[in-house]
Design a protein that fits this description.
The chain is of the alpha/beta class. The chain has 2 domains: 9-182 and 364-382, 3-Layer(aba) Sandwich (Rossmann fold), CATH 3.40.50.2000; 191-362, Rossmann fold. Helices cover 42% and strands 19% of the residues. The chain contains 15 helices and 15 strands. The protein has helices at 24-40, 83-93, 106-114, 134-150, 159-164, 166-169, 191-201, 219-226, 242-251, 266-275, 292-299, 313-316, 331-343, 345-362, 365-382, and strands spanning 9-13, 43-50, 56-60, 63-69, 72-74, 77-79, 98-103, 122-126, 153-156, 207-210, 233-236, 258-262, 278-281, 304-308, 323-327. It has a 7-stranded mixed β-sheet, sandwiched between helices. Helix 12 (313-316) links the parallel strand 14 and strand 15 (323-327). The longest helix has 18 residues, at 345-362. The chain starts with 8 loop residues before the first strand and ends with a helix.
Length: 386
Amino acid sequence: MNDHNETASILHLYKCYYPDSVGGVETFIHQLTKALHKKYKLQQHILTTTRCKKAYHKMVEQVTVHYVPISFECASCPISYTMIPYLRDLLAEETFDLIHYHFPWPFADLLHQFTALANYPFVISYHSDIVKQRFLKQLYAPLMHRFLKQAGTIIPASQNYLESSPVLQRYRDKCQVIPMGLQDAKKKTGLRDCLDYWQGRCPPPFFLFVGVLRYYKGLHYLLEAVKNTTIRLIIAGDGPEKKALRKVIDKLQLSDRVLLIGHVNELDKYVLYQQCHAVVSPAHLRSEAYCIMLLEGLMHGKPLISTDIGTGSSFVNKNEVTGLIVPKKDPQALQNAMQYLLNQPKQRQIFARAARNRYRTLFMADHMAERYFNVYKNIWRNYSGF
């Protein structure tokens, strides 16, 4: 860190951010930057893309977010021609002590190699392998490995993901696992009216999914699991799979027991977590690297049901301690787990208490911020230019 700086300044890069996009990585970045500012007074900026036609920036809870227009997208990777001059001007105006990349975003790898970002120390939060775009991944691999090799530290969010990722195995010596964390949910105002609304619309017991509706979430397996049962389910969130899921709900005649309610605000989400019987993550691909929803379930003291996909989801949910882990792509196993929690109220309460304790022990935002700050300090000590 520069000696003349009272506080360090960090620049985060990720392909999307609020309000254009709502998802697990966006939530993680929000929670991390908020906790780092609160605990260490770090000055932080986020550089991201937007579908707006003009670049702009604004303050979001003591963090300056820079939105630069997307020129085009290729395989879920936004590319912005105007980001290069915008970044040049930003680096001329602001003094940054460290760059924090959130992987994967291949365009950020290019920015690092061909702009002044290459002159800064940097860390990488490794959120996921590239799973779907296999052919393009082969073309991207040389750039990716050059980028990862140059990093000071690579940070996966779980030992599970580190052990199961063939990419990370090449860089074990520079990997440091730091679990994601969340600020504890505060009791919301307007709770009674919201509670009455949801109890009228979908009275307990019901199971809950919250998240972006993407192809790897396995929600079609969850819908298969609840057919021919009396199980009630709420799916909260928007995304590219919404129309397809609606068709499945209609085809299976589940509309009387399954609510696909779209994006919900923080008050509604708080009430749904408080009222649900358990939280269910039916993901079937390892693109689901961690699952913020499971963390939120722990925070609210709810039992979890998740699938065994070899990622951080099986670190967040400890089988037969905080809930149940079942085989992926297995609707019957999901159904059996839900029925078990309905039929075993004492065991459900044991899972619920363990869930809350696991959150407080491992997944609080302050713990995450402290460990990230220690990584930053080690890099500053070892970087000759700082």
